[in-house]
Structures are given as C-alpha cells and as structure tokens.
Amino acid sequence: MNRVPRLLAMVALVSAAACSAEGVPALQASAVRTTAAAGAAATAHIAAPAKAAPAKKVKLDIADITPMAETSEKVGVGFPIIVTFDRDVKDKAAVEALLEVQADKPVDGAWRWVSARKVIYRTKTYWKPHQKVLFTARLSQLPGNKAEDVTRRFAVGTANISVVDTRKHQMKVYRDGKIAKKIAISAGRGGLLRNGVDVYLTTSGVHLTMGKKSVETMTSSWMGVTDPKDPRYYKEEIPWAVRISDSGEYVHQSAGYYQYLGRSNQSHGCVRATPEGAKWFYGIAQRGDVVKITGTKRKLDWRNGWSYWQLNWTQWKAGSALKP
Fold first, then answer.
1. CATH code matching the domain that covers 62-156, chosen among 2.60.40.3710, 1.10.1650.10, 2.60.40.60, 2.40.37.10
2. Which of 121, 172, 178, 221 is deepest in the core (most CB within 10 A)?
3. Active site residues
4. What keywords tag this UniProt record (predicted)?
5. Domain 160-307 architecture
6. The model's pTM
C-alpha cells in the first residue's frame, strides 16, 4: 500500500552486545482497546436429519500498536508502525489490504510480515518531519469478522539523524538537516568472539532509537558472567542511556574513561559519549530517530531491534503478502 513522543521505549539476536542492560527493556507501546465479542456464526448443515453444531467464528483484533499516539509521544523520521494481532493471521493478504496509512506529507511505504501475528510498515524514504500520520485497520470489513475498526494518529517530530564514525571517534547530530552538535565518542573495541562474531564490536548500519532511561543498569550477565568474583564481572549504573538495538547497544554517558573519548574505541559495543553530550542527546531523543554507525566490520542485522532500514526497498517490499 502506497498511502500513507518524552517517553521512548524497545528480537534479541543470538549474538548479544556487551552493553546489555539488566533485564529486557519494557516497551512503552500501549495496547489498543479490544472490541465487542464476536457474534455466533451461521449454522452449517449436513445430511438430513442430523445437523452440525453451529460453527464458531473467530474474531481477529489488534493486541498492540507501536508507537504510541500523538498525545503521548513524538516520533523520529525513521519510525516503523508495528501492528501485533491477537491471534495468528490466516489470510495475510486480505488483512494487509485493510491496513491504511495516510500522512499529511505522504511518502511511499509498504508492509512486511515478520511473524504470523506481526506486520510492520516502513517507508521507502524517511518520513517528513513535523506532521501527523493516521493509521487505520478496517477490520470490520474482513469477511466474517466482527471486530471494530481501529485507528491511531502519530506525531512526527524533529528529524534527528545522527552519524557515528567509529574510526574518527565522533558523533555528528543533525536536526532538520542542520548540524546541531558534534560529540566525542568511544565505540566497541572488539576482541570477544562468540559463534564467529566479535560481539565487542559496535554494529555498523542504520539503527533506530527504541527507548531511553536516565539511568540504566548494565551487567555482564549477557556473556554468562554473574559471579562478582569473576574478573570479567561488572554491574554499573549508566546515565543517559538511549537504546539503539535489541542486542544491548546504547548511546550513553561514558562511565569514566573520558581520556578515550574522541581518541580510541574502548567500549563493550555501546557508543560512549561525554557527560554533556550524552545528556543533550538523551534530551532530544525520540523513538524512531536515525543513528547511522560506520567504520566497523560487524554488520547490523535487520532483525536486531528496529533496524528495518538495513533492507533495501526491494527487499522490504518482498515481505508483503500482497502481489505487486
């Protein structure tokens, strides 16, 4: 289909990153309301004189929509619309055809099914900033379905696009196309292989911000180290943490080691920033903001968090249930 907020919230991969937070971050997306119960189905007939019991119709409804509505948050220009149904969708094409996206400033977009219950909408190019986008699921039009239609309006905020150069150890933040800040950083140092992947390297690719916490607890449990006596053990309270993947990558304030910022990569995979820079970045961050990371040999997987921009447009559209 081609038609088309200060809270922020967050499929973990086999290869986790070293800045992994304690526990799984709570998604802030609110569940949509459920509709009235489905009515009884028409009675099916079999050979006389016996009659089959009435067939029970199954109602398909929406369990969750991400992101939240315009009254709760503003989102970045890379944001996806993530729709989760309350049961497996049998006829994906029929359901997808009833999903509508209308933007004040339209851009091409398409749906991609990532599971039997979840479908994601991504645009071909980034959303235009400072506008409203209306999502409608016309579920009442699905044959035999008695669920009500569902709508949600999103508010797109400032176009925050950050470029992290792990070789130059710098992050440049652009707001609505203009450079707003340069921040000295330190990225993943590398050196820890797991299943052939160096999990101490920051992943290169187009990340989206998924959520943030003013203080995040980060531990070494992601690599199976839970004994405080182990020299590899750590448990730290990290300020100004903005999550950019499911595998534990954040942009956050460096916990000391300021001498490395702007000079070398020394983190466990996260993007460490100066206290002033990290706090500023946390303050402007919206879910769905773009964070492009370059300079490492570890590629970001498109299934890691909201990294859907890792697929080109042709690849993305191939996940639609509708024929071209």
1. 2.60.40.3710
2. 121
3. 252, 270
4. Acyltransferase, Cell shape, Cell wall biogenesis/degradation, Peptidoglycan synthesis, Signal, Transferase
5. Beta Barrel (2.40)
6. 0.84
